[in-house]
């Protein structure tokens, strides 16, 4: 085992990791694996970009069906650019962090209109597109175009923090970590190196009980040599999430249709579909009583559902009314057959509210 705080052989580490990746890479629907690359297959920038946007704050297993559904429906970035916003939001429903879907659509439109349907092949060019930040620009540049870009997601942060035993807490340690990743990233196969770092963090250098004996970095890992790897990365103490309250009103008419409405395009859950709710936000409570119902009806209390957003926890009191007649007073509201609710851009929190009132709402008909 090498001594701590000694200069590392970056090229040797990169070579060891790439050798490990050649043998142990994950097969993912958006990935060109090393065997595929040897046969001349090249990454599709559209596939890489789409997967990277979907993977932010989401697991690989959750993303796979969404990725395949999007490609089946919109095989090219120009197809996505021309799709109606409502259809894109509906296809995204359930994947969370809905600003990503709005930015996805804007980015596709920009690539189609301003770049002839071809993604820029540099970090700088990619970063200029709507909704693409430093991470996504680096990931697409490296993986799709083999640019020597330093790619750092949560998995890479964990690997690099342990390899160098970086004691400074996140998020303040990010620049230090990125500098280490940049020094390690080779000029040859930088895209495979980026994906190898992600795979290493996802499968070997895991948050709990990492499989250090199988790691290609084990002889150089400072956390393994002198510490407990599970202590890294060091994270600043989390602040308690505030709790916000509101009410949701699930109304059904005599034709087994549910009253829905569309949220404003901007803000939390922008452009998504919802049942009527009170005016809660991430910063203020809404009324959580029947007094704020959108219209008079025999409302029944159906309990409280809880949903955790990034910055706050929401608790919605759910009220239910049946056989409602004819209420829908603007083009933002409509009656939707319960049997077709899956076609709507309903975020998870709204599905929870509906299920609290109508437990079988999303159960497939037999």
Key structural traits:
alpha+beta; three-stranded mixed sheet; three-stranded antiparallel sheet; 14 helices; 6 strands
Short description:
The longest helix has 16 residues, at 99-114. It is built from 14 helices and six strands. It has helices at 10-24, 34-38, 45-55, 60-73, 77-82, 85-92, 99-114, 123-127, 134-145, 154-163, 174-184, 190-203, 222-226, 348-357, and strands at 243-253, 257-262, 273-274, 300-308, 313-324, 333-337.
SS strand fraction: 5-15%
- How would a crystallographer describe the biggest sheet? 3 strands, mixed
Report helical residue fraction. Answer: 25-40%
Main structural class? alpha+beta
Order of helices and strands: HHHHHHHHHHHHHEEEEEEH
Question: What is the CA-CA span between the terminal residues?
Answer: 61 Å
Widest sheet: strand ordering: 1-5-4
The helix tally amounts to 14
Number of strands: 6
The average pLDDT score comes to 94
Q: Report low-confidence residues grouped into runs of 5 or more.
A: none
Q: What spatial form do the alpha-carbon principal axes imply?
A: globular
Rg from C-alpha positions? 24 Å
